[in-house]
Automatic annotation (TrEMBL):
Keyword Disulfide bond set for record: no
Listed GO CC annotations: cytosol
Start and end residues of each HTH asnC-type domain: 10-71
MF terms in GO: sequence-specific DNA binding
A biological process term (GO) from this entry: response to amino acid
SMART domains: HTH_ASNC
Source species: Aquitalea palustris
Alphabetical list of Pfam families matching this protein: AsnC_trans_reg, HTH_24
Record key words, sorted: DNA-binding, Transcription, Transcription regulation
Name this polypeptide is given: Lrp/AsnC family transcriptional regulator
């Protein structure tokens, strides 16, 4: 895979920090500095700069969705009858706050949006779809349920 060159403001040490933190976001600054052969203070300064400049959006733990009782993973494509209306904006506002939606993308192609949705079971997913159907302007909803997860990775290649 060809990776475009990152922002020229990032040097090799910055990229190494980002790569290590993607693997272990809970890594302490002293441990990070040790891994990079830097002293703690310059490493801390780099880390704070990366946070302040928005390269690091936050820190989180990656949870096993199945152990959390979320056995259904669905890819949902939906279309609006008229994307020029205010209805898609209303939809986007609703989806931003919906906890079952892991991600939502406005896309090109046959559909207008693609969502990644979690549900505890098929009944729970069916309730989610009913909520979607209640949103004015949606003309079609197509679901694809994941049968098997081959690869999961939330890391950006660096």
């Amino acid at each position: 895979m060809k990776i475009n060159k990152p922002d020229p403001a990032l040097d090799a040490a910055d990229l190494a920090i980002l790569k290590l933190l993607q693997k272990d976001g809970a890594m302490s600054t002293p441990k990070l500095a040790e891994q990079l052969s830097l002293s703690v203070t310059p490493c801390w300064r780099r880390l704070k700069r990366l946070e302040e400049e928005g390269y690091i959006l936050g820190y989180q733990a990656n949870l096993d969705r199945r152990k959390m009782g979320l056995d259904v993973l669905a890819f949902v494509s939906l279309s609006f009858g008229n994307v020029g209306d205010k209805q898609p904006n209303h939809f986007e506002a609703l989806i931003r706050d919906h906890e079952q939606v892991l991600s939502c993308h406005k896309i090109t192609g046959e559909a207008d949006y693609l969502l990644v949705v979690l549900a505890s079971d098929l009944d729970d997913y069916s309730n989610f779809v009913e909520q979607l159907r209640a949103i004015p302007g949606i003309s079609s909803i197509h679901s694809n349920l994941a049968l098997k997860e081959i690869k999961f990775n939330s890391r950006i290649p660096l």
